[in-house]
Batch of 2 targets.
Target 1
Amino acid sequence: MTAPPRSSGSDIRAILHQLGQPLSAILSNAQAVKRLLASDPADVPEARAALGDIIAQSKQAAKIFRRLEAQVCAGPESGDRRAES
Amino acid sequence: MGERPAVIYVVDDNVACRTALGRLLRAEHYLPRLYGSGEELIGDASAAEVPGCLILDLAMPGGMCGLELLERLAAAGRQHPTIILTACSEPERAFRAGRLGACEFLRKPISDIELLRAIQNAIAPSRSRNVADARRRRARELVRTLSARERQTLALLKDSRSRKEAAIEIGVELSTVKYYCDNAFKKLEVHSLHAALDIWDAVTDGN
């Protein structure tokens, strides 16, 4: 039986980079919402669109996070334990 | 006259990120123009004409990278004050970007306050330069309407000569010098010698 492939540092870096994008979009959208609603008159349609993007990007971030989790759990540490046993 | 909103060019291959930045900038009364790649910005001829600030994501794996875009813009004489966004710290690339005119580096995710401050810093020098240029142009137009005698009078008064000394130098009556001054003030749209010499300086210093 072959062990699951070990994730290299560069794999994890690539996933981390992917995770940064939705987090960036979430933060900028949330900060935009605050300003859109504070302006006079408040730009409600644009704020609503930003909230829609925040939801979509949060889901995207969660998906990438789960992938990262799977990589780390199959990562070098658990691999080493397998080799020892 | 109020200042026109500044144009901000946003180049980011991630559509969610650039859309969000566009919203943030519009909420702050900037005029964002969004591009998904360096190629898109290079291809937009109108972007060459309108001065503005560039916000650039350095890491764009799909096509032209941020550094390459900066190089191509510099080669085409299309340098904008540039704010670089990076996902991780990349000192070497940041150094190269700095040499290509980047004036600020912000790490993603960026805070709105930091971004807006960076934009203000980036566009402030070109704004004050624009104001100074406009003032000098206007001064030149006004000075062009002066007669040779009026110019001569202002030049003498500029040399801290009194009106009386100026009259002797030119070889006319004091009342004539006063007449030249009044005419010059009217043409320069000012009410004092001090203000007239300010305009005179703006033109002669530029030469």
Target 2
Amino acid sequence: MTSTHQITAGFLPLLDSALLVAAKEKGFAAEQEIELTLVRERSWATIRDRLAVSHVDVAHILAPMPIACNLGLTAPAPRMIVPMALGLGGNAVTVSADLWSEMAECGASPDLDARASGLALRQIINRRKGERLRFSVVHPYSGHNYELRYWLSASGIDPDEDVEIGILPPPDMADALTAGLIDGYCAGEPWNTLGVLHNHAHLATVKAAIWKSSPEKVLGVNSRWADGHPEALAALLQALYTASLWCADNRNHEELANLLAKPAYVDRPPESLLPALTGLLRIGGREMLSIKDFFVPNAKAATFPWKSHALWFYTQMVRWGHIRHTAEHQQIANDTYRPDIYRSALKALDVAMPAASSKVEGALRVATPVGSSGALTLGPDGFFDGGLFDPADVDSYIASQAR
Amino acid sequence: MANRSSKPGDLNVLVIDENSIRASIIEVGLREAGYDNVTIIDDMNGLARRIMEINPDVIVIDIENPNRDMLESIFQISRAVKRPIAMFVDKSDEASIEAAVEAGVSAYIVDGLKQERVRPILKMAISRFNAFSRLNRELEETRGELENRKLIDRAKGLLMRSRGLTEDEAYALMRRTAMNQNRKIVEIAQSLITAASLLDPGTDA
């Protein structure tokens, strides 16, 4: 049988490429008559370049990056849309053994509470003499960079003045920690777990503690391709949604970890991939911690491309000087995420949809049933400092965060 | 630091490539074209610091390099380098970006440098990258052919021993079988070797 749709997707070797990998390996793409080719890359810059020259049609990509492309912050700057998210959460902040033991003395708690860890870090920085602590993230326009900065700032630490934040490829981070080149990093899995297993690192906190149910990777789509292939795109979203259900089922976690571990994908042992799927993480030495909603592939509308997520990333781009705030820029960020395409593509699957395409981030303190077409539960989606982001009032949020 | 006159040799060119053979091929090409001021980095340790020391006008880097995100960030975000550097994107010429990505190379240039001055460097890098991949492919093919010949020789030996054939007869038999079954002779050889080892693990040629 020949497939109706040929789609090439770029991805980086990370746990949250799971939906794409499962869509291909478990036949969900084939069911939608898609011949899905997965192309692994080693940098986000190359994913962007391949999107720009149409070597790939779609990609597993950092949630803020399509916005950055549309704002012209990158070169080349392919026109992009985001019709789907690829899950929620999945990152952690990992620190060296030395820094963790100091943090623990200052009150950081073994439950990785973001507030306690942040306050401990601030104490250390306040009394520290000499060189600043150094952290690494994967990319300037990444959830990692923005959540690390949010966590530091809300803990009273200036991310530009009090510490140094640089960029490193995730596979090099744990080694850089061992070599003493950095003191900590914020990355996706399996790079935190591997740091704990092989480099005596310790988790300091997790994305799911800094901002619950928060966006991480999305499906970035070359908008020219999307315009020319609406049916292929709809079929892909259906395949990925089905894949997200499969990934979320705990009976499949072991198989998924084994799939991702293959040389063509993440190419790391299944033991380093399973913790993020089960939420039972090794946080340092032999200490284990069960972390609720560490990585959410399907529940809580985890694949829905919220406008409020796009706008929150935009506010952080403004906050850290990546872009000047104007009505036009805000509109570009808003228009990058396309819940309308998500809704119409998944109608056929009878997926429970949120009634609105935007929500006040941080407002849901407990899991809350919502939804226009079926049972759907959202949240909690709180920021650790109790902050609220109202996408209807971007101006005042930006003003409140101005330095 | 290079001044802005138009001799190629005045440009400070940095080539970053983990593949040191490919890096040298580019370097030779650049020198032949009159770029005397070329530095190669094939060890990624301390990359950011070395770039700051070298302070290049043009950077050529392979796109498989995982350090590209770091590289772009030191140009764009921090003020670590003295002069802003941007990716070489000639907006009027989409084909050249495509050719570069296709070849697996990317380039960055110091802000304000005329695109015309950089285009020959990128063109040269693209053609050398392509030539390198072609060489690699040919090498792979040659290796493959050698492997095939070894398999065929082993299968011939098996037939000669088990059926008392001469070398020519053994080869002819395999060729006939391959033609009849519409398969490659090396596939027949492989099947024979597999079969022989299954039937009697001791007789494997």
